[in-house]
Design a protein that fits this description.
six-stranded mixed beta sheet; alpha/beta
Length: about 500
Amino acid sequence: MSTELPRYEHYIAGEWVAPAEGGYFASTNPTTAQPWYEAARGTEADVDRAVRAARAAFEAPSWRDLSQTARGRLLRRLGDLITENAEDLARTETLDNGKLLREMRSQLAGIPEYFYYYAGYADKIHGEVIPANSTKLLNYTQREPVGVVGAITPWNSPLMLTTAKIAPALAAGNTVVIKPSEHTSASVLELVPLFEQAGFPPGVVNVVTGFGADAGNALVEHPQVAKLSFTGSTATGSRISAACGSRFVPVTLELGGKSPNIVFDDADTDSAAMGIVAGIFAAAGQTCIAGSRVFLQRGVYDEVLEKVSARAATIKIGDPLEPETELGPVAFGDQRDKIEEYVRIGREEGGRVLTGGERPDVGLDGYFYSPTVFVDTDNGMRVCQEEIFGPVLTVMPFDTEEEVVALANDTSYGLAAGVWTRDLARAHRLASVLEAGTVWVNTYRAMSPMSPRSGFKQSGVGVEHGTEVLREYTRLKSVWINTDESPARDPFVLGS
């Protein structure tokens, strides 16, 4: 019986293209720990070909001269095609990174909404006329696409996070080169042929697969890339920012988080407990917005901790394709090793594991790790300060509002925060003083293409989602027209 794996090539200029150096790499299904496809191993030559194709498409009349309204129609058609292919895309991503199939079905129901939303904005990107100091001078601004956008996307939510970048970039009239994570390339590669079906000209969207050291660096450093958007670790984002900064290339960076989830004595404890579970154990904790630090006011500490730990201990772990599964594997072996090492560190630092803290026996050979709840932790411990990116929760008590604000903000990150309280005044006070780009009150992980997302401190630079993101993918030009045909009165004096 043949054991040859299915193979994906690069997608460049509307065609499947073999890698320049002929290399491929295997991607592993995290549920079985077995390789299930090969993808082209991109190099500098592959990236150069893709960027040049994107630049040629950007300058071609078939894209450049397309009206903004027509661009919107293409995005809307793409959203329809994603809906038609949602089940296949959902299954592909589940096989590639271990997310629950039912969660991926939910994501695939929401992803078309991003394209519909930005389709509506495509012909509403415009400048304004500005009063000048002379009635003979006409001054107006216009927003232009920047050119070729490089999009480097992570392994935890490939389709959703790729969509968040390319939908507004295309609405603004740019072209794109995507470098997906080497761990999860399949769903993005299954997505890109739909662009051609929707009517996008060849070269408007391109994908080069491979590793960060090769394809990723080449994309960051390519001289024809006019804008770089990256989602991933803070360490990698820092390197990308430095490289782009040296060439004055603008960047959008959505980076790590160590988000606090705060429960006050007056909260609905059932809702708060479920919000905590959702914030850290959904997607096996592999989300940048994970509520990995929980602070419980002493009046509800025991009650909420018992509810959270009891639910964590009964979470159904298994095959993410099965409808009853609540927690699938983490995305790859090295990530599970990282989680295990942090649990070891937490214990060594004096933390106590209330539940979890081990590999579960689920009858599968994949990269599974039990939902883990730490107590007896201090906010200064590494498990409370460093992003683990797995199903590991630290729980700490607090007494006063002022104390918990100080604890919540005592981190190098500032991506998200959760607050659970029935006190409306307190909710607004906390929303104002928490150093986080997103604050949820009596909910967690809610999001919409209409709502902007940004990170404070080491959680990122720039904005994704909402109307503000369109500024990230456009540049502002000021145009002055002199309508006076008479000669200048004094050529050596400004404005004369």
